[in-house]
Amino acid sequence: MSHLERPTVNRVRDVLVGAGREDTIIELSDTARSADDAAKSVGCELGAIVKSLVFTIDNRFVMALVAGDHKCIEDNLANALKIKGSVRRPQASEVKAITGFSIGGVSPIGLLRPIPTVIDGSMKRFEQVYAAAGHPHCVFSTSIRDLVRMTSGIISYGIASPNSPEFAYSPSFTRSKTFAKK
Questions:
Q1: Is the CB of residue 153 less than 8 Å from the CB of residue 147?
Q2: Which CATH number fits domain 3-163: 3.40.630.30, 3.90.960.10, 2.60.40.1180, 2.60.120.260?
Q3: Segment 60-89, tens digit of pLDDT
Q4: Is residue 154 exposed (0-12), middle (13-18) or buried (19+ Cβ within 10 Å)?
Q5: Segment 108-146, tens digit of pLDDT
Q6: Measured between alpha carbons, how far is residue 92 from residues 11, 30, 89, 150 in Å?
């Protein structure tokens, strides 16, 4: 059986197609269990890989979607999602029970039930990003705009920091004419 025919991958495909998107799921010859592996397999920059990280905040499951070249700042998740409580990493069995996916193939879409999601704003620097598609050998491509729409996630620039200074990202803001100096 091809990895593309697995039930978990089909759940992701159903969400893509149901959202009016093309089926952009790619089967990789090499594993995509880590962001480094995925970037090498896809042939893209490390930052264009979406890491789907599951946490609990006061026993409520949440997801952080973080650029592959960034690390999650767990202490900032509760504030970003406006949920009070302490953050912890759940066991692999808990992740599978809540998402329906095994670690290494956790997709941000096609979850068994929706969970609050926050998205690392640094990924806006890419027109296209790649996320796990329900199996460690499958990914799908999407835009950040579509990822926000499909996950009902919120963008935050405070949930992740670069793994090294070369990956630092600062969003550009346009100054309002209302407040411009004359």
A1: yes
A2: 3.90.960.10
A3: 999 999 999 999 999 999 999 999 999 999
A4: middle
A5: 999 999 999 999 999 999 999 999 999 999 999 999 999
A6: 20, 22, 9, 24
